[in-house]
Structures are given as structure tokens and as C-alpha cells.
Design brief:
single chain; alpha+beta; Penicillin Amidohydrolase, domain 1; Penicillin V Acylase, Chain A; 16 helices; about 35% helix
Length: about 475
């Protein structure tokens, strides 16, 4: 657009923000100020990317549910705005994103679009089972889509586990390529109230949602989703609101977990891994809907905690998921649990950035006992998995799903408000959409939506 069309106030807002494009595939974005101001900065700087992201995910939502995005927008407004479950601060930030993106693209990107995109996990994954039953009492399966497709590998270590006694945290996002191909934003937010946050996120999202965040309170936050989970309470706030507020305002691990517990809707059941560089502690906090890790959570000053989509909490695993045997099922995510245990024992006392990068990109299949990327390896490659060994966690063979990034944060990088990150697979291998669709024509419904993720190098996002 012609920037002369911006108001004087909007120009002042944008003068306080910055965007570095294609930093090893990432978009490094800095925004600051009051809610509407920082939202406008976000929307304007990433307007074209927001439009592309919405195009892909409106299609993805329809493909999964046979309902237009507007169906879920109506739900988001009814459940969360009309009932005032989202604080005004966050509503203003999303309104600013919509306004900024509309001005950048010269198209209408509505507040409803941005709200619904932020509610995607709550409504289109977790809530859909509830909504489907409302639409048809004879619905074949009222569970959410989230039970299919394991998501993410992660660990956090501290004390005698690491090379210097400090915290080391890592995470790789596993998700549908159609959606996750847009998760290439490193967002640095300095709000007018609360703590500064640096997070991996997607265009238009106000929480990380992958989740990987460091805050100026000294907190490091990540998670792996608890799969097979089917709980959802539509009367509670959406998860994105609660996780964003916890990161923005929590001062320590106990504060963070108390904030998350207060509004938990079960819509994004997670094994959260937390670190506090001020106390030198790490912790794991798991949220179901009925059951959660007792608080205050147990914290470690020596040791390792890891996640691979299986609840460690016996109540959540046995009473709130449909796959309690995942803990031991080495043909599925249990293989990653065993692999983490072996690798972390091997590197115990020496865990650092370099060997963590190798571990998060590991291709050893504990089920087949070969070095071959699959749905069972820490760097997930469901698109390479023929499904003959274990069925790819419920997906068809060669499904376009798996690792799309890798991040490593340490005590040192968190003090400098940043972390290292690789865009694309954690191992660094490229994904070329045309080649994939030629080899696997059964996924021709993704033509025109799936995009490349070339091989990329690790990048450092820390303040100098």
C-alpha cells in the first residue's frame, strides 16, 4: 500500500516496530506498546503473511469439518466475546492486527478472522467434537481431530545434567504441513504492561501456540500436546488467552501454573515444561480438564524432564485419554520416550546447545532399531512413513505431517531475551511440495496450498 494512506498516529506506531524477513526462513518481528498499537504493528508488518495463513487455514478447517470458517467465527464470538471471557487488552490487540493487516493488504481482514484464527486449536480441533454432536446426534465420532497426529518432542534440563549447570530447553513442532508451514515468525513483544516476551508463533497469533517462549521474568516455556485427549469445556476461556496472559504477567513457575489452572478449558491439554533462570529450577505441569498436576508443582534443580505427547500423570493418561498404553507402545510415541531416555542418559552432565541440536533432529527408530526418519523418531517424518510398522499414529501412509522447526534456549540466551532456531525440519532436510505431491498423488487435495520449506541453517535470535 501507499504509506501516505496511514494516519499520523499509525506512522508513529510503525516507527517503533521492525521486521527482518527471511532470516534463515524466519520472519523476525519486534512490536511494542499498548494493545491496539502493538496489534497494528503486528498486522501491518505481517499483513501479507496473515492473508496467506488465513487462506490455508480456512481451507484446512473446511476440509476437516465441512463447515466454513464463519461457522467457527460465530462460535468464537458467542462463547468468548459475548460472554466476556477474553480480556479487553487481548481483544484490542487482535483488533489492531485486523486493522493493520487490512491496511497493508488493501483487503478486509476482520477481527472475527483474527479471533477465530487464534481460537483454532480450541474450536476447530478440540471443540469440533462437541459442535459435531450438536449438528448431528448420529455423528460417527464426536471426538476432536487432535487425537490423531502426535505433536512435538521436547526436553528441559538443569544442574548436574547440563555442561554448565544452567538450563537447556529444546522443542520441535510436529503438525500438519498445511498449517505449520506458516509457523515461521519469531515475535519479540514489549507490552506497555507485564513482561517482554520472545516467542515462536504464526502470523496473526498473539500467543506462541507452538509453544516456545522466553520472558523478561526469566521464564522459559514449552510443551508437548497430550494426544488421545478428548475433554473440552466451552464455558471456559480459550487456551490461547490463558497461555498468553500467563507468559505476559507471571513472575515465576508457581505464578505461571496458577494462572493457567484458573481458566483451563481442556481445549489444549499439554505437558508443559518450564524453566526459571532466576531460581535455576525446572518443572513439568500437565493439564487435562478434570485432572492437573498438583500445585505447587514439583521443581528440580538437577535433572531432565522430557515430553513426546504422552501424559506422565496417571489420572490424565488413564481417565482422560483414549490411549493410556501409549506410554509403553514402542511402535508409536512410546518409541520417542525410550529414545529420549537413552539419549539424555548418554549426554547427562554434558547437555549443551550443540548436542541438543543433534538430539532434537535424531532419526533413530527405537521400534525398528534402524536410523530412518519416521513417525516414531524425535524428528518426526510422517510424510516418509509408509505406515507398515505402526500406522503413523492413526494417519494414512506418507501423511504430510511432522517436524517443521527446532528451537534451543539456555540460561544465557534467555538472559539476552532470545534463543536459537532452525526453520524447516529439525534435522535440516528440505521439504519440496511439488516433489512430495508427485510422489504421493493421493494428497492432490493439497495442490495450491502446500508450500516448500527449503533446507535452512540454525539462526540465533538474541539481543547483542
Amino acid at each position: 500500500m501507499n504509506t501516505s494512506e496511514l494516519s499520523a498516529e499509525e506512522k508513529i506506531w510503525l516507527s517503533k516496530a521492525s521486521l527482518q524477513t527471511d532470516v534463515g526462513g524466519w520472519m523476525h518481528t519486534r512490536i511494542s506498546g499498548a494493545a491496539l498499537e502493538r496489534g497494528f504493528q503486528h498486522g501491518f508488518l505481517l499483513g501479507e503473511e496473515i492473508a496467506a495463513c488465513l487462506r490455508s487455514n480456512k481451507f484446512w478447517a473446511y476440509w476437516m469439518t465441512a463447515r466454513q470458517f464463519s461457522f467457527f467465527a460465530d462460535k468464537a464470538m458467542q462463547l468468548y466475546v459475548d460472554k466476556q471471557l477474553i480480556p479487553d487488552e487481548l481483544l484490542q490487540e487482535m483488533q489492531g492486527i485486523a486493522s493493520g493487516a487490512s491496511k497493508k493488504t488493501n483487503t478486509e481482514i476482520s477481527f472475527r478472522d483474527i479471533l477465530t484464527w487464534n481460537c483454532f486449536v480450541d474450536l476447530i480441533y478440540s471443540g469440533w467434537g462437541t459442535f459435531k454432536q450438536e449438528l448431528s446426534k448420529n455423528a460417527r465420532d464426536v471426538r476432536a481431530h487432535r487425537y490423531t497426529g502426535h505433536r512435538c518432542s521436547a526436553f528441559v534440563a538443569v544442574g548436574d545434567a547440563t555442561h554448565d549447570g544452567g538450563i537447556v530447553m529444546t522443542h520441535t513442532t510436529w503438525d500438519a504441513f498445511l498449517q505449520a508451514q506458516h509457523f515461521n515468525v519469531i515475535m519479540d513483544i514489549t507490552p506497555d504492561t507485564g513482561h517482554r516476551m520472545v516467542m515462536q508463533t504464526a502470523p496473526g497469533w498473539i500467543a506462541s501456540m507452538m509453544d516456545f517462549t522466553v520472558t523478561s521474568a526469566g521464564l522459559l516455556v514449552t510443551e508437548t500436546t497430550i494426544d488421545g485427549y478428548i475433554g473440552f469445556d466451552p464455558a471456559k476461556p480459550p487456551e490461547f488467552s490463558e497461555s498468553r496472559l500467563a507468559c505476559q504477567y507471571a513472575s515465576d513457575i508457581d505464578d505461571w501454573t496458577e494462572r493457567m489452572a484458573a481458566g483451563n478449558n481442556g481445549g489444549y491439554a499439554n505437558s508443559w515444561l518450564l524453566g526459571d533462570i532466576n531460581s535455576g529450577e525446572i518443572a513439568r505441569y500437565e493439564t487435562g480438564l478434570i485432572y492437573q498436576t498438583p500445585r505447587p508443582v514439583e521443581k528440580l534443580t538437577n535433572g531432565v524432564l522430557y515430553g513426546q505427547n504422552i501424559a506422565t500423570d496417571m489420572n490424565i493418561r488413564n481417565l482422560e485419554t483414549d490411549d493410556p498404553d501409549a506410554w509403553s507402545d514402542i511402535s508409536q510415541s512410546g518409541a520417542r520416550r525410550v529414545r529420549w531416555k537413552k539419549l539424555l542418559n548418554e549426554h547427562y552432565g554434558k547437555i549443551n546447545v550443540e548436542n541438543t541440536r543433534r538430539m532434537i533432529g535424531d532419526h533413530h527408530d527405537e521400534f525398528l532399531q534402524i536410523n530412518q526418519p519416521s513417525s516414531r523418531t524425535l524428528c518426526g517424518h510422517m510424510d516418509n512413513d509408509n505406515g507398515r510398522a505402526s500406522g503413523g499414529h492413526g494417519h494414512p501412509p506418507f501423511y504430510p505431517w511432522g517436524s517443521v522447526d527446532a528451537k534451543v534456549a539456555t540460561t544465557q540466551s534467555a538472559r539476552a531475551m532470545g534463543f536459537d532456531a532452525r526453520w524447516g525440519r529439525a534435522c535440516g532436510e528440505a521439504f519440496i511440495a511439488e516433489d512430495y505431491l508427485t510422489q504421493h498423488p493421493q494428497y492432490d487435495w493439497l495442490e495450491g496450498y502446500l508450500i516448500d520449506r527449503p533446507a535452512q541453517q540454525w539462526q540465533s535470535f538474541v539481543d547483542e
